[in-house]
Amino acid sequence: MTWHLLMLNVTVKDGERALLTRNGRLERMLAPGQHRLFDPQHALKAEVFDVVRAEFPADRYAVLKAARPDLAAELFELVETRADEIAIVSLDGRPVHLLAPWQTRVYWKVATRIEVERVEVSGDPHVSARHLTMVERNPRSTVMMETVVENHEAGLLYVDGRLVERLAPGRHAFWTVGRKIEVKRLDLRPQAVEITAQEMLTKDRIALRVTLTAFRRVVDPERTVATVPDVDAWLYRLVQFAIREAVAGRTLDEVLSAKAALDSELRDYVRARLAESGVEVTELGVKDVILPGEIRELVNKVVEAERVAKANLIRRQEETAATRSLLNTARLMEENPLLLRLKELESLERLVEKVGRIDLHAGNGQGLDALLTQLVRLKAPETV
After folding, report:
1. Which of 86, 224, 260, 357 has its CA 20 to 30 A from that of 125?
2. pTM of the entire structure?
3. How confident is the model at residue 195 (pLDDT cuts 50, 70, 90)?
4. Reduced 3-state DSSP string for the chain
5. Among candidate residues 149, 164, 177, the one with its CA nearest the CA of residue 225
6. Which of 3.30.470.30, 3.40.350.10, 3.40.47.10, 3.30.479.30 is the CATH number of 191-291?
7. Cα separation of 284 and 262, whole Å?
8. Considering just the CA atoms, what is the radius of gyration of the chain in Å?
9. Cα angle 163-190-289, degrees, rounded to a multiple of 5
10. In the chain, where the domains are located
11. pLDDT digits over 93-136, tens only?
12. Distance between CA atoms of 248 and 348, rounded to whole angstroms?
């Protein structure tokens, strides 16, 4: 916009429009092109706007509409929302803006096709799949929230603090206008809970610490959410109470020797108190029993003494069995001289195996015959 002598020169490009005012009052709109306007007093002013997929200030629209309602209707599209609706504004077929309740926006429509889809949100809070594809995903949106429920999860939908339904796995979106939407997701897979050791006293007043492991899973999500604020914390405290009660009624020897009975008692105790919570404890057992240093040394000494005594007993039993076997063998040899002679030959054979060379001499000139016949006799010669 330039002045030359008494003329105002205004250039409006394609995709633009100019609003011409005289002394602040709107006269007309200037279309694309070159405009030469007679303005000896410099009273004219041209304001150029980009009109392609563009907005116009709503307050200026209200002033323009009051002065020139015909021009306002020709140039602009007014979009207003009520208290219980939102509007999806598409520019040339592309969803661009999402208007919350009680919002007003004005769009140039001389070069852009304006489409408005209004959605009633006071009833069903679910966002349809078609609307979800049109809405820009914004985690800070004040009109919509989105969540994803995995295959191993249960999603519970709460509207204004009231449980409405259980959601199937998948993606879900909800209108949050005029209501509080909350989705609680619970993992349905088995979870391990480690109960760390705390010092406690046995029946015989010996301090020890016990660590446990519990495996739990949610079987009734609705009941669990309604009765237990924090499943793991509640189970942790419950198992602590159970182990304290079980250890306090047993001696140290009973705790160390009856682990299976202790595990069974703990499971029964915990399951009885979890029956109405929708949580199932599949396994629960003692992992470690930690004794004080001096008690541990004493226990080790007792165990060592028991093992030594058991080893001595086994050795004595074996010696007794060996002696009994020797006695039986001696009796057999006494009753059967031939058996004794065979035993002597067996001993001789073992002895010969360890000798590198043996020289045998047969006396009386009998030679090899004496070596073969007189070296070993299985029967003594008869006396006359």
Report:
1. 224
2. 0.65
3. confident
4. CEEECCEEEEEECCCEEEEEEECCEEEEEECCEEEEEECCCCCEEEEEEECCCCEECHHHHHHHHHHCHHHHHHHEEEEECCCCEEEEEEECCEEEEEECCCCEEEEECCCCCEEEEEEECCCCCECCHHHHHHCCCCCCCCCEEEEEECCCEEEEEEECCEEEEEECCEEEEEECCCCCEEEEEEECCCEEEEECCCEEECCCCCEEEEEEEEEEEECCHHHHHHHCCCHHHHHHHHHHHHHHHHHHCCCHHHHHHCHHHHHHHHHHHHHHHHCCCCEEEEEEEEEEEECCHHHHHHHHHHHHHHHHHHHHHHHHHHHHHHHHHHHHHHHHHHHCHHHHHHHHHHHHHHHHHCCCCCCCCCCCCCCHHHHHHHCCCCCCCCCC
5. 164
6. 3.30.479.30
7. 10
8. 51
9. 125
10. 129-187, 191-291, 294-334
11. 999 889 999 999 999 999 899 999 999 998 889 998 888 888 87
12. 69
Helix axis angle, 259-274 relative to 231-248, nearest 10°? 140
